[in-house]
Amino acid sequence: MAAKTHKVTLVPGDGIGPEVTTAVVKIVEAAGAATGAAFDWHTFDAGADAFAKTGEYIPKALYNSIEQNRVALKGPVTTPIGGGFASINVTLRKKFDLFANFRPIKNLPGLKTNYPGVDLIIFRENTEDLYAGLEVMVVPGVAQSLKIITEKGSTRIAKAAFDYAKKHGRKKIHSIHKANIMKLTDGLFLDCARKVATGFPEVEYKEHIVDNTCMQLVMNPYQYDILLTENLYGDILSDLCSAFVGGLGLVPGANLGAECAIFEAVHGSAPDIAGKDLANPTALLQSAVLMLHHLDEPATAERIQAGIEAVYAEGKTLTKDVGGTSGTKAFADAVIAAMESAA
Ligand code: ATP
Ligand code: MG
Description:
One of its GO terms (molecular function) is magnesium ion binding. By secondary structure, this protein is of the alpha/beta class.
């Protein structure tokens, strides 16, 4: 079979990043070898490691590579708390205007959680809100952070969520907000979502206040289909929702813009388990599955997804976070073996 070669920018990141990235690349290569998809990985450091080598947190060569390839697979990069270090993740999302953060939350067959059969999607606005990073020390002892919500930003994320719902036959969208308190910012977000909703009569549109949503999700996540959120609420709700499907080791994500897309897990660099072969690569692997669909390689994507599902259904080679005793590498090898025996 003539292989089609996809150029993909690869950022292993730090903490557990290099371990999960190595596992994922190995699996994607194995799947591609069977389906006729080939990959040319352009690998770059980012964050503290890049700074030590190049003097830049995000090397110019990495920016150029994403600009050219238009698609990247990215491991987590640590953002130290406080200090003058801008988040690499936020900087990349802003630089490439990756305004839509897409996070599907779906149980894997065979992995028991307290919430079986959850299937919901978070569409998180990815470029503004309190993450605009506009913070000042007004006077000593008083700090201020500006919450930026724009008509443009709110409308395009709402449009992305409704377009997705229509295309994929999803039934319901809830805007999540706190407009009772933040009447102008969250009020504008809701106004924009309502306007977009009028163009999609086939999709039911509702609004829930964010604190109530946390309670409602824990009581009954099945009432939700798509959650449409600003940046901060989406970040917090993603971690909450990850618990439905087995935790942060499972949930994938895509950062989508008009020109480029960066695929990365919801989780961070988990320094507590880094370098110990303990990390679960499933979240980044399912992010790679999203990437393969984006690259129009559905056969490769489905082969990997089937491999993941077979390993979870068998339940013998799972990582510690989901109740197993296997390491990152053994899990990856089990997925490869499952893909091969399914063929
Ligand atoms: P960030 O600020 O970057 O979102 P965070 O504070 O939310 O980071 P994470 O790094 O995402 O924290 O991880 C929280 C905890 O979840 C980790 O300490 C780790 O124990 C667990 N965890 C996260 N990702 C994984 C994974 N892939 N496999 C196993 N455990 C994980
Ligand atoms: Mg987090």
